[in-house]
Design goal:
By secondary structure, this protein is an all-alpha fold. 53% of the residues lie in helices and 1% in strands. It contains eleven helices and two strands, in the order αααααββαααααα.
Length: 306
Amino acid sequence: MATPDRELLSRTARNAVRGLMSGLVAGAIGEYWENEHFAQNPDATPGEGGVRKQLFDSYAASVDWTDHDHVTRALRVFENMLRRLDRESLKFGGDGLPADTVAELREAFARDGCRLDDELRLHTARIDHLVVHADALSEASGIHAELERLRRFGADYPDDAIGAAKQLIEATAKLVLLKRNLPVDERQDLPALIKQAQQALHLHPAAVPTARNSESPDNADSIKRILGALTSAAIGVAELRNRYGTGHGRLAAPIGLGPRHARFAVGAAATWCELMLDTLADPNAPWRKVAPALTPPARNTPAAST
């Protein structure tokens, strides 16, 4: 299943700009939106406020706030509006946008990973479009789709990619356990979760079962060595995320992290996830041929003497 879309710029940040529209002439509001190729949405429901705020709403309603390109262009609109308001204040003898207003704007945008600098320019490097909603990935198709998205965009957003790669490993491990009707402990750390998932498919290097056919590649020592390396690689992605990836409230990418690190992490995660998903789906996989463990019969309890 596809992951649900997530708005890349919150309503809080949008409303912080909307609240200033009474200071702009209507012509400027329309001009800035249309310069970035946005048109009024005739079906927009007007919000509270005057004509200029409602005009702002009609254009904002045409923005897909889950689309990276749309949000990038909308942020340029906001930047131009804020700088125009600042210039207008200075032109008529004011001190520019009030310091408390700027502070509120900074706080609102920072929550979305966007920085407003002293010249009222918006920096969007941390507008994250590689977030994975791991809890929503209940089918293999959703994980495959997210892996493909990481391959396409990961090099441009290396810390996002590393964080998302870790989440996909976690989602894959949980999916395997659920499909095998095994319990999932939400408090379990990722190395333990990885081990449990591999054991569930008889892919853990220390527990590869002996197949009926001793010539099966699943019995080869080389396969066991590869499985051991893959286990370490999956755990390594999680450790890399803890140090460099997203998920810890950072507003800027770690220094030195580049596309090659992202490709390395995404490649390792993809190899592990795809092996798990392929094995889960394989009708001839060894885990399907191993008889389930029998529950020991209950011992007869002597009847209580009366």
